[in-house]
Every structure is written in C-alpha cells, then in structure tokens.
Specification:
InterPro entries: DUF364 (IPR007161)
Protein name: Putative heavy-metal chelation domain-containing protein
Organism: Acetobacterium tundrae
Mean pLDDT: 85
Pfam families: DUF364
Shape: globular
Number of helices: 11
Domain Putative heavy-metal chelation: 138-234
Length: 247
C-alpha cells in the first residue's frame, strides 16, 4: 500500500509554506499528565492510565497536535529542526508526528487533533461500534491496538466470537479481555487482518514504527484508523478515520 509518512508530508508542507520557516515558529512539546490527556474516566484500563503510553503534545503558533508514544521527548525549537533529529529513535518520530498534526491544524489540513477526556472515550467507543454496524452490518471485526472501550463495545455489538485483536503490550498479549484473546501485535497481525471484514486500527501505528508492517497486510480490506495521532496522516493518505469526540 502506498503511504506518505510524516517526514515526507512535513517536508512538503514546509516547502509549500515558506513562512513557517521564516517566522521561526517555536514548538514546545511535552508529555501530558494523565489528567491533561484523558481527564478522569471511570474506566481505569486505558493505556494512558496504565503507564504504557503517554500523549506527546506539540504546539505551533497556538495550534496543538498530539501523538501517543512510549518514548516521550521534550523539544523546543524551530520546525525544520524536527526534521534533523535522528530517525533511529521512536520518540523522535512521535515528535515529528505530533508536530505534523499541529502544523496541519494551523494550515487547515487537519482537525480533531486533541484527545477526548473524562468519560468521552467511552461514548466515543460506542459511536465507533455503531458507525461500523450502520455501514457494514454484523461482520467480523479486527482491532489492531488494545483500546478497552472500543473492544468492549465491539464485543457487545458484534459478539466476542466475531472479534480478533492484537496489541504490542506484553502484559496484554495472551490475556482474555471481554471474551476476546489478545494476540501478539508483533507476530499475529496477518491473522487478525485475514479474519476481519472490517479493521479498526490505532493511529499509534503511525508513530511507533509498525505502520508498514500493518499497512502492507491490508490489501483491499475495509479499515478505519482511530485516535488523534493519525489526524494529519489519515487526511494526507485518504484513510478513513473515526475519532468523533476529539477536539
């Protein structure tokens, strides 16, 4: 599958909008505290609350962009400097993705770049499962990336036997969650894809180095990305995205 990555898209935007370089816009990025990123939801098993991921936020001239990462890096400098950071560290790429989301928000190429909070993720998950049901009917669902509210709502709507899910967190792999066994995101992606009629894929794959291994498996499958990480890249790659309560 053809895919424009964050580095390619950000370079293109800088070339097309020279004022972004000339204004020497400052980017301030930091990992958000749990209460800033997701508020105080009743559910306590979101990855943000279990310490496996944090939400990195970049600000460009008042516009905000985010990316999930397990390797948060603080940065302050101009936008071209982001492109000069070493490419071999995942945290640098997550910073690149968050910056692209902020720049794209500023230029009007992306919206819904800020994560929902409190119990909105629960409502969001219900809306996602209902959207899939309305568009595709009762079908087999593949979920790549453990998001507990989405899994629980999909299990309720489609039935646990009609769902397969994979995740990278070793504590989740092999466990039974809402009647569904969590498969290994490093080795079982193909199994999830082949099983599913429709796939729900975390936008975090675009910031954690697994994008190619997932996207190359999709072929002609129907899929939706979810989350704020993929705000800009979903748009530039013409991928469908479900993130109804983000801001």
């Amino acid at each position: 599958m053809q895919f424009k990555d964050a580095r390619e898209v950000l370079k293109s935007l800088l070339n097309q909008n020279k004022e972004l370089n000339n204004l020497n816009i400052t980017i301030s990025s930091r990992a958000l505290k749990n209460e800033e990123a997701i508020g105080h939801p009743d559910r306590k098993d979101f990855p943000l609350l279990t310490g496996k991921e944090v939400l990195l936020q970049a600000e460009v001239d008042g516009s905000l962009g985010q990316a999930f990462t397990s390797d948060p890096i603080a940065y302050q400098g101009n936008i071209p400097g982001i492109l000069d950071l070493p490419a071999d560290r995942l945290g640098n790429y997550a910073l690149l993705v968050a910056t692209l989301n902020a720049v794209s928000r500023k230029l009007g190429f992306a919206d819904h770049t800020i994560h929902c909070v409190d119990n909105e993720p629960e409502t969001c998950a219900g809306k996602i499962s209902q959207t899939v049901l309305e568009k595709h009917g009762l079908c087999k669902i593949g979920i790549i990336g453990y998001q507990p509210a989405i899994l629980e709502n999909c299990a309720r709507v489609f039935g646990a036997d009609n769902i397969k899910i994979s995740d990278l967190n070793r504590k989740n792999v092999g466990s039974l969650r809402y009647g569904v066994k969590v498969l290994d995101g490093l080795t079982d992606t193909k199994e999830v894809v082949e099983f599913a009629d429709v796939l729900l894929i975390t936008g975090s794959i675009l910031a954690n180095g697994t994008d190619r291994s997932v996207l190359d498996e999709l072929e002609n499958k129907q899929f939706y990305l979810f989350g704020t990480t993929c705000a800009a890249l979903a748009n530039f790659n013409h991928f469908k995205r479900l993130c109804p309560l983000s801001r």
